[in-house]
Amino acid sequence: MRLPAFLRRPRWRSLALLALLVAPLLWPLQQLAERYYLGELLQQNRQTLDLYVANLLGTLRRYEALPQILGDLPALYNVLRQPKQAEAVVEANRLLKKIRERTGADSLYLMDAHGLTLAASNWDQPDSFVGRDFAFRPYFSEAMAGRQGQFFGFGTTSGKRGYYFAAALREVGEPLGVLVIKVDLDHTEQLWGNTPERLLATDKHGVVILTSYSEWRFRATRPLDADELAEIAAKLPYPTRDPQPLQLNPRDWLIQQQHIEETGWTVRILAPRSMLERPVRAVLISGATGLLVLMLLLGLLLQRRRHYLERIALDTRTRQELERRVQERTQDLEELNRRLKREVLEREQAQQELVRAQDDLVQAGKLSALGTMSASISHELSQPLGAIRSYADNAGVLLDHQRYPEARENLQQISQLTKRMALIIAHLKAFARRDRQTPESVALQPALEDALALLVNRRRSLKVELIRDLPEATLWVQAGETRLRQVLGNLLANALDSLAERAPPRRLWLTTRLLDDGRISLSLRDNGPGFSAEALERAREPFYTTKTTARGLGLGLAICDSLVNALGGELLLANEPGGGALVTLNLQPATSAVGAQTVEDYP
Fold it and tell me: Membrane-spanning residues where (predicted)?
């Protein structure tokens, strides 16, 4: 049998010619790879840019409204009215320092109408702002004009970058001064991390103010004209008055940007083109490798074809062997197909089991919430139920002795306690729904007497000596009658539980005093064992208790803390130096005694 002419030529020369014809196919492969990886990289960088912008805006918005909120504090107005009174200045300095520690702001300071700093949160630091004139800052002039002052700048005193929010303090429509809050942006910049992508934020002048690459900081991304340089020299937003240009070749970077309308900033993310070139190069290498493999396979096919033509006259046994091998391969494929079907079925069953597990988890969450609500109601109704039991037993004894007026009085007390239980249940339902109720004026002493009356039998059985230091004049606080009695009852019950663990004499002190900020403070001190270190740390956690499960659920202090916070008050736990526990309840004073009966007192 004579072979064709193209098969009689050297086969490797034919393969080389074929490779030259197929090689141009790598160019469209490169174009497709660049288009694909460019889209992936741009999408990834857009998500990263959105995330960082949201983080930056979240940091600024957390402090944006704070100057206007804090502008109503009396201590700040006292300094502006009497700037030379030392006591007023000291009180304002301490107040601003406390606010800085609680809010996490970098610094707070108060300036008069001329821009002179009268009080600051860093008054006791070497770089104190007190006595410094910041009238040249634009946030001062904006606040004095009735607008909210906003400004990014490099601190001339602290040497730190920050974003400033300012608001004017007014009296009869006239500005007395300006309260300024400085937000530290160094932490936000550190969150950008050290990644191949570079992030930078520029202000309206095109100067880099935040960046993940420190060498780019305070460099100009565009030429600055004379007016912009004059404005920079007047407002001093940077450590330099002539920002140097940023040498950046746009052809080396893939740049995406997002403008922030609130601040006038532009945030950019720059990805080096090497991040695109590397995967494209890998695709080209893979394509070239595939082409080479294809050539080798084609060469092998040609060689096999040639051998086939040479062995076409082989006997039938060789053909049968080949058919047998083909049949074996077919059986392997069928076995592989069955195995794949089996794996698909197992995966569908696993998916169904996952859905059932999710449903069980949701149901478990509902049962947990229901259990917490039931435990709270059981805990809060235990004291009224104990009092009802005591009154009922006394009423039975009085009826046996035909003392009907006194028995009727006990029955009236039981009726009042059942109403109170209904109010407690209604309050707990409202609390579970997060309903908000406006605090009303409530008399403190009657509520305290009512709570003591519920526990009088237990106090007498423990022989607890009650020592009171309460004023004769009625103290009115902002609270709800039921909620206040509920808190006082829980605190007194906890004190009696603590005193039960020690031998007589057992004493309980009740003291009230007026705090410097006008709040009314009620202190409950006992001579019991006091709080342990773990109890002081975890006492406000639900279901944490140092008692046995038969005596307590661990919800009393958790409920008290939530109720007091809802009333705008404060619950403090400590140990008395002389021994025993000290629980302090600080409540807001009521403006008047009108409305002493609150809405929540009626079912």
Answer: 282-302
